[in-house]
Amino acid sequence: xxxxxxxxxxxxxxxxxxxxxxxxxxxxxxxxxxxxxxxxxxxxxxxxxxxxxxxxxxxxxxxxxxxxxxxxxxxxxxxxxxxxxxxxxxxxxxxxxxxxxxxxxxxxxxxxxxxxxxxxxxxxxxxxxxxxxxxxxxxxxxxxxxxxxxxxxxxxxxxxxxxxxxxxxxxxxxxxxxxxxxxxxxxxxxxxxxxxxxxxxxxxxxxxxxxx
Length: 212
Hints:
By secondary structure, this protein is of the alpha+beta class. It is 42% helix and 23% strand. 28% of the residues are buried.
């Protein structure tokens, strides 16, 4: 599929050199770019864990944070990392690429919901589940952005639902799917004008040191 998109872009370049109407070419180029982005998003959404291995959740979350830090800086949105020191070394059996993709999608969604001067806070720790005392990781990503009203909130993680033009509507639904594939749970709470909070819990096989 990538070859087809590459061919279209090459043809677009030829048409520009031939003197075709620039406004029409720009419209076609924008449509192609949106199609490429949608295809990429859908391919990520459809992926399943390929080769599960033991991975460090702290390192995976840090990779997602590092990747998006420049985007937060460009938009002048404060990104607060409040990860507990014991979270590093929390081990889980899973796909590091997909989990980083899930964390990144939630962070990207928070970034898009905020404006200059807003804040996104990331909390992470290991704890014992109150129901069965099993060890689990808790990651909370909260923002001070626009939030969602109670009519939109139930649809926020539904595939292809979006309130933003030119978005695929797969970011949060992809994150939910990946977290559930790893035996976890993703929950969203939000209030219009007050921001949103995403809570992710994942089963942990080992933490250093183990929580009491």
